[in-house]
Predict the structure.
Amino acid sequence: MIRIRTLDQLDIAPGARVFYRVDYNVPLEGARITDATRIEETLPTLKMLRERGAAIILASHLGRPKGARNEKYSLKPVRDKLAELLEHDVQWADDCVGVDTSQLKPGEFLLLENLRFHAGEEKNDSAFAAQLRAQADYYVNDAFGACHRAHASIDALPRLMPGENTAGGLLLAKELQFLQKVTDIEERPFVALMGGAKIAGKIEPLEALVKLADKILIGGGMANTFLSARGVPMGGSLVDKDSLDVAQRIMEKHSRAEVVLPEDLVVADSLDNPTEIEDVEVTEGLTADAKAFDIGPSTVRRYENELKEAKLIFWNGPMGVFEKEQFAKGTMAMASAVAAADAVTVVGGGESVEAIKASGFAHRITHISTGGGASLEFISGAALPGVEVLRVQ
């Protein structure tokens, strides 16, 4: 069990300046935020800090500006959305260092410009971290989605402060609470539902899950690779050829979990302009011009039954190209089944969050993680720098 210093353990004097590291790396269309979940999830911590009279300095990254100022990645649209959600003014700083925060009053908010406009952030540079440190008295981290990165605002900065002045926020504590239910299992059956385009990037989590779960239900492009490794002709489907040996190794592991693959697939000759869409049994294999874009109805029924019996469910990755209506049935059916299950349900970030929201069942999920990559690394057993620096014995 991982324990970190928590917000309630900080003795914050009224007017003390708190550096609040958040993950506001939100999707944008121009200046419009298309999903404000990551901002919304920080509101409880922000309100608690304000009630305790802290002067709150918010800092985040956005996109990949590669260590240089780029207005495309400015956090200004985030400032506007945050002020709307808080129903309170949020001050703005045009940089993240060299900012005079001494005049910030108790209960006021100040959002700094993108941390990644400085190369020192991603380099975990101690000098850059010292510039950030000079602006605050306390450090609170709720940026779970960035905790697997050893960056200056995540790792070097809190090391420059007294340990008793650093803590995880309410969001970080919640993330750890529920993700540890996946690694420290109390109830079974534990069923993992894994999808997405490729195995690459999910090898370590998969290898961890075959030791933790009772069953792993595979879908999406990932299933194509597993089926191909079993010798099933996959036609023109996306197959991660570099991971065929990994898929074979995972299926051959002598471990707890049974790896369950699709019985049928929804196939077409084209994603954007299909001339014919049909359900194909996996035993038949796919013809040369056929491409798999979703799990089929027989697979949906099998997976629904498995999820119905589960007491713990972890889901990461869609079952098909759910952005296209004709190939969304498998993913939407899984969203409904996960939501209806009499189980602790954890959705592990990324596209699966988009899918669960599109399904309308997000409110019925026990926990939706704000960090796809971080949640997978945590489950794989990797030490997350942003967690380790706050860890207590």
Remarks:
- The radius of gyration is 22 Å.
